[in-house]
Every structure is written in C-alpha cells, then in structure tokens.
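Deliverable D5.2: sample structural annotation.
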Amino acid sequence: MQPRPGADAEQAPISGMATPYPASWIDHLIAWIGRLPGPAWVFYVLAIVLLILVSHGVRWLDGSLPRGEFDPARVAEAPLILYFLALMHSLNSVARRSLDAFRPALAISEPQVARLEYELTTMPRAAGYISAAVGSVVGILSILSSPASWGISVGTSPLTLGYTVVASAVSMAFAAAFVFHTLRQLRLVSRIHRMATNINLFEKMPVYAFSALTARTGIGIVIIIYYYVYLFYFLSLRADVPRLTDRQPHNSGFPSPSSRLVRLAAQRHAPSAGGGKGPAGGRGRSAFRSRPQATSRAIG
C-alpha cells in the first residue's frame, strides 16, 4: 500500500525553505503517522485497541484480572493516552487549510507563507523535551496520589506497574505538549490576523478562515472535560469519588427545587384542614385572589 496522497506535503514545509528551528519529537511522530497508508484516524483507533489489549494482557498475566475479562475503567482510560496527540494532529491539518483560505488577505511571499505554516504546525524541539519531562513527573505523581484509579494495588506485579507508569507519563506528556501547542498556535493566529492587508468586504472566506481552528480547539477541550467527568463520576475511576448513580437524591441535606415544586403543588391541590383554608395562617388560594379585588375597590 502507498501513503495517502498529500501526506508528505501536509507534514513538511515547502521544499527548499530553511526550517526556522528543529521540530520536536512529537512533530516527528505526527509526521510519521501522516506518512502511513490510509487515514490517520485508522492508526489511532488501532493503537487504542492495542493499548486496551496490552493493558489487560499484563493484568491477565499477573492474575490481578481474570483471564478474558475486561475492566470498563481500563478500557475507558486507553483513549486518554493518545487523545491529545490525535487532537494536535487534527488541529495541525485544520491550521494548514485555514492558512490556505486566509492566503488572499496576506501580502507576503510564498516563502513567508511557508514559514508561517511551519510555525503554526511545528513546535520547537525544546518544547518536546519539556513536555516529556513534565509528563513523566506529573504521571508518576498521579499514580502515587491515587494508585487505585490506575488499577494499582499492593499485589500489583512489576510488569503491570511499569506499563501503568509509562502509560501515565506518555498521556501527561501529550497533555503538556497540547497546552503549549494550543497557546502557541492561537497566539500565531492572532499575529497572522494583524498581518492581513488585503481585506475585501465582498470576500468573507479569508475573514473567517481560522474560525474552524479556534472552534475545534474549544470543542476538543470540552470533549476531554466531559470524558473525565464520565470516567470519575460514572465509572468511578477514582476510588474516593462515588458514582452519580450511587448517590442519594438529597445527599446535600437541602431539598431539590423539583421536590419543592412537587410539594407546593400537592399542598395547593390537596384538601387542607380547617374548613378548606390553606396552611399559611388560615389563608389559602382565595387570599391571593382577593388582593386585586380589594385594591380595585380602594381605587374606585
């Protein structure tokens, strides 16, 4: 099979242009994935399936999980390892298309456009090293702070522990890289907008060219937030966080607004003691209706 058309062009600047700085290891990894045959999402789906099998395989070997049994929490955490890498890959592709659509508004040469494209889609080498260091530290601290959420117990084998540490460090490294990638990319988008000089009021496409990039960045952040809520509160990935389905309706000690509405409706429609008068000091619904009449007689 041959790489999909345009894969190399998507991952490299125009030939002959000197790169402003060396690319990070994350960008090299994204470029390698882009050169593989078929769409990139196929690779990520297959990689997630492989991570699920490896995560369960090490637990099947050490006996912490019965052979052939799948843990929903371990299945759900596998996409987190590659989520931010896949999101950066997707945002880089959107950034290239957005820059192409914005090109008519820029009065610059093609080498300058190629440099902007390189900066939009490529992080410096130092950023990759810093992301790896931060991810390793945060990943280890995450396991130490809540080992049960990672499926680690006293009897966990070194093989399972080693895989969990590597998976946590890699996922946190991609997360740290995504933070730097997003802040840098959106800052460059703001700079590119300031470079625009050929603005045509009758041609709206360049004006909204980068809206797809900013919108997808926000959507990607919202998706991962809700996914964490799903893991922690529905799958109870953390042992100290109860599931939403296990909570009592009034665990806070205060009645919910819906329960108060139901109770008020029952009080209004149910027959009350004391000659049909309501609970408010002997005045029921008629008291609220009599006030406008009294007011109208006073005015008359």
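Annotation notes: The CA atoms of residues 234 and 261 lie 28 Å apart. The radius of gyration is 29 Å.
The annotation will be released with the project's public dataset once the embargo ends.
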